[in-house]
Write a structure and sequence with these properties.
Number of strands: 2
Strand content: under 5%
Distance between the termini: 26 Å
Strand order of the largest sheet: 1-2
Largest sheet: 2 strands, antiparallel
Oligomer: single chain
Structural class: mainly alpha
Helix content: over 70%
Order of helices and strands: HHHHHHHHEHHHHHHHHHHE
Shape: globular
Length: 474
Amino acid sequence: MTATLAADAVGEAVADHSGQRLTVRERLAYGIGDVGGNLIFAPISAFLLFYFTDTVGIGAAIAGTLLLFGRIMDGTMDLILGTFIDRTTTKWGKARPWILFSTPVVVISFILLFNVPAGLDETGRQVYAFVMYFLCLGVGFVGSNLAYHTLLSVITSNSKMRVSLTVIRTFFALFTTLVVNFVTIPIVTSAGGGQAGWTVVSIIYGAISAVTFLIVFFGTKERVRTTLEKDDGHKLPVRQTVRLLLGNPYFFLAFGFFFLNYLLVGTSSVGIFFAKDVLGDPNVYSFLGLVQIAPLLIGMWFMPAIIGRVGKRKAILVGVAVSVIGALITLVDPTNFTLVLVGGIIRSIGAIPAAAGLFALVADVVDYGEWKTGVRLDGMNYAAATAGQNFGAGLGAALVGWLLAAASYDGLAATQPQSAVGMEIFLYLWLPLIVSLLMGVIIYFLNIDKDLPRMQRDLAARRATTETVRPAAG
C-alpha cells in the first residue's frame, strides 16, 4: 500500500504503453534484491577490516591496502561488465540473466572470504584474503549488483515507478544494513567468537542472499528496449558508446556523487573501532548502527512526496545541511555516548534524501543521455556509478587501515595508544563532515531536475512513435 501511494505521489505522468505501471508484487520482488545485496555488502563494509585485523591477524595497513586494490579492480570490472550488459540479448532481457548466473559466485566467495584458513602463513593469508575479496566483490557482486541497478531503468520507463522502486529497494537495503549492524557481533559472540562465529554469520547471510537474488530474477520483467543499435541493426562500437557516455555532462557529477557517498560507506568500517576504543565497548556499535539506519527507515516513505514537490536536488541539498549540523553536535564531545547518538540521529535524517534519490538520479542521467543522443546506455551509466561506489568504498576502507596503522593501532593489543583513538575520532566524525560538504557542492551543480518534465514527455513521445518499447521479457 505504501509503495502504491509513493508511486502516485511522485513525478509527472508519463505515457504508459506496455503495462509499465508495476504491481506491488513486482515492486516488492525487485526491492527484495537489496536484502541479498546488503547481506553481502554491509558485513564486508562494516566488519571485514575488523575481521582481518582482530581475527585473522593481518595488519591494518596491509588489510586496508588489500581492500583498496580489490575495490579498484572491482570498479574496473564494473566498467567492463557495463558494456557487456548493454550488449546482452536474451529471452529474459539483458540485466536479469546476470543476476541469475552471478548468484553462486558471490554467495560462495562471500562465505569463503570470512573463513580464512588458520593453517596459512602470513603471506598465504594475505593472498587468500585478496583473491576471495576480488572474487566476491569484483566478479560475483559486480555482476549481480550492476545488473540489479540496470534493471531499474529497463523494468519501466515511468518516473513515478522508478522512484517507488528506489524507495522500496532502499528501505530493504537500510533495514538489512540495520539488522546486520545490530546482530552481527552478538551472533559472532554467541557462536563462540573468533573464526567459529564468523563462519556461522557468513553461512547464514550467504544462504539468505541466494534466495533473494532468485526472487528478483523470477519475480520481475524487463520492458524498456535498449537503443544501442544503429539504423542497419548493428550495435554501436564500444568506442562510440564511450564517447557518447563521456559527452553527458551529468555523468561526471553522478560519478563524483557516488564516489563520495560510498567513501563514507567505506570509512564506516571504523565504527566498530570507535565503539571499542572511544566509547569503551564494542557492543554499543549495535546502537550506533541503529541510530544511523532507523531514521532512514522511517523517513524514506515521506521522500517520494517531498521529492515530487521540490525535486531531488533541493531535497538532497537540505539533507546535506542537516547532516553537517548533526556532525557538529557530535564533535562537541566524541566520548559522550548520548551526544554521539543524538548527532548520529540528525546525521541520519540528513542522509534520507540522498538515499531515496541516489539510484533514481542515475536513471535520470540515463534518460538525459538518450534524450540528447538517441542512444540509451543503461549498463554503462550504472557501471560508472557503481565504479564510483567501488572506488569510493575501497578508498574509504583503505584510509581507515592506513591511518589507523599510521596512528600505531594494533589489533592484537588489549588497549590502543591515544594517537589511534584520536585517529578513530577523525575518521568517524571529522571526515564525514568534510565529505558531506563536498557532496553538497556536487549536487548543487547536478541540476537535472530542471529538464526532467520536458525530457520525460519527449522520450515518451519518441518511444511511442518509434516503437522502442518491446513486449515484456519473460
